[in-house]
Amino acid sequence: MSPTRRGAALGLLSAGALAAPVTRAVAKAPAETPQTELPDADEPPTELATQQSRNDHMMAPVGINGQGPFSFLLDTGANISCVSRRLAEELNLVSTEQTRVHTVVGVRSRPIVKLDLLQIGPRDRRNVRAPALPIKVPEIDGILGVDWLKGQRLTLDFKGRKMEITKSRSDRDEPGRAVVVPARRRKGQLTIVDADLGGKPISAIIDSGAQGSMCNRLLRDMVRREEQASGSVDRSAPEVVMMETLAGESFSGETVFLPFLRLGGLRLGNVPVTFAEVHVFDVWGLKDTPALLLGMDLLSQFEKVSLDFGRSAVRFDFV
Predict the structure, then answer these.
(1) Confidence of residue 232 (pLDDT cuts 50, 70, 90)
(2) φ and ψ at 13, to 5 degrees?
(3) Which of 30, 58, 75, 125 is the most exposed, fewest CB within 10 Å of its CB?
């Protein structure tokens, strides 16, 4: 799929491109995470039907203070859940403090609101402190981050259009059906460690909040060197992609095609991504290593993607 034919990127930690000259993206990864009641390891399995946003994201029904359901974007690239400022005003949620929120392009101060009760199916949290962000897309009432998933397993079922939260469990490859890839926890997210580009190791983060996949400069430069070595250098000027965060922060990138990408037992060729010199790679400590954010353009090609935060592994089901 060509980057110029992707939907608008509305995810929290990445960006993609539209056929139109300007696209949208949003990023958030607070360095100072508000304290929230942690999940109970004995919570019941949760299965919820999801909806698909106009930009192909998974949206889950969430209750707040006994009201709703409201539509929250499922984002494995966000280490904390948040609400839109619009919803905070609608529910009369008052803020008395601020927190620093790291976006794709930098750091912003945002108000924190208190949620007396936040519900996802049979699971609930009380006394949740969440940043209120100026999300301008009406269909997104908030973001559901990985703070709900301490030591648990999240399955994004693209074919069945549902999400599942269950206990962590051991897993293994199923030849012809599924591949399990080892990962490590990095600031709340799972970073795939068994990955390489043309035999050279890279880091890859699963970012379900991103419409399009994105790479950093070191990975872009690796591709350029491979092109020069093979004599297949494209002399034309790189395709420039203009982007805008959901909060209206503009930035730009360029189209890059990744040859021979391997994620564990998965092998992908000529993968389109967007390179951008952005702050988010600094936030995750990935500035000095070739790194890739796997967005919905790649994730949704699988039947299911399961992130096990207890076992530090990612499973890709493709049949």
Answers:
(1) low
(2) -130, 20
(3) 125
Measured distance CA(283)–CA(292) in Å, rounded: 14
Contact 274, 213 (CB under 8 A): yes
Closest residue by Cα to residue 276 from 219, 214, 222? 214
The Cα 179–Cα 177 span in angstroms is: 7
Q: Which of 197, 193, 202, 209 is nearest to 246 (CA)?
A: 209
Element (H, E) at 168: none
Reported as half-sphere exposure (CB side, CA atoms, 13 A), residue 212 has a value of: 31
Question: Would you say 30 and 80 are in contact if contact means Cβ atoms under 8 Å apart?
Answer: yes
DSSP-derived letter for residue 261 is: E
Dist CA 20 CA 30 (whole Å): 30
Burial class (CB in 10 A: 0-12, 13-18, 19+), 251: buried
41: pLDDT confidence band, cut at 50, 70 and 90? Answer: low
Sign of CA dihedral 56, 261, 12, 193: positive
Provide mean pLDDT across the span 196-219.
Answer: 89
**Rg, C-alpha atoms of the chain:** 19
Q: For residue 174, what is the DSSP state?
A: B
Whether the bond into 69 is cis, omega within 30 of 0: yes
The whole-angstrom separation of Cα 40 and Cα 25 is: 33
d(CA 210, CA 58): 11
Residue pair 76/13 in contact by the 8 Å Cβ criterion? no
What are the tokens at 8? 């608008």
List the one residue out of 317, 307, 315, 316 whose CA is nearest residue 151.
307
How far apart CA 295 and CA 206 sit, in angstroms, is 7
Largest CA distance in the chain: 62
* SS3 of residue 66 by DSSP: coil
Type of residue numbered 182: P
- pTM attached to this predicted model: 0.82
**How many CB atoms neighbour CB 7 within 10 A?**
20
